[in-house]
Specification:
The chain is built from four helices and seven strands, in the order ββαβαβαβββα. With about 140 residues, the chain is an alpha/beta fold.
């Protein structure tokens, strides 16, 4: 489902929708990214699957999207999410180049299909109140 509010575009991927629903969301996300600008890819607040299953399926979906679209900056929120996406993208590592704020590193992906792409990681519960908005602005500025 595509959401748009205050210029922020988001797609919610529900891992319990099955392969057909997942494929539809992936195709929609690739089209949105191709049309320009940034896109938030998220999961529903209410989880009906284990955290491990959600992370694994979400990681697979995001990696497929990233390999099918031109990604300027990848922002990963949540330790399990970041780990799963990085694993699915078969990255060698991340070169840390700075911090948006304490505990929110900014870097570049090393290896894999997204080699050189900017990446920001943030633990789910960390950061100042406006951290997500600042991450969005960073992604928009970097393309």
């Amino acid at each position: 489902m595509l959401k748009s509010e205050k210029g922020l575009r988001a797609i919610e991927i529900d891992v319990v929708e099955g392969q057909a629903g997942l494929t539809n969301h992936i195709e929609q996300a690739v089209k949105e990214i191709a049309s320009g600008g940034s896109l938030i890819i998220t999961t529903p607040d209410e989880r009906r699957e284990s955290a491990e299953q959600v992370s694994k399926t979400f990681g697979q979906a995001v990696s497929q999207i990233c390999c099918s679209a031109s990604v300027g900056t990848l922002i990963l929120i949540g330790d399990d999410t970041a780990e799963s996406v990085c694993e699915m993208l078969d990255l060698f590592g991340i070169e840390i180049t700075g911090e948006l704020e304490d505990g929110i590193p900014v870097g570049s992906i090393i290896g894999g299909a997204l080699n050189g792409v900017s990446v920001v990681t943030k633990a789910g519960g960390s950061g100042k109140e406006d951290a997500l908005l600042r991450l969005w602005e960073l992604a928009e500025a970097r393309g």
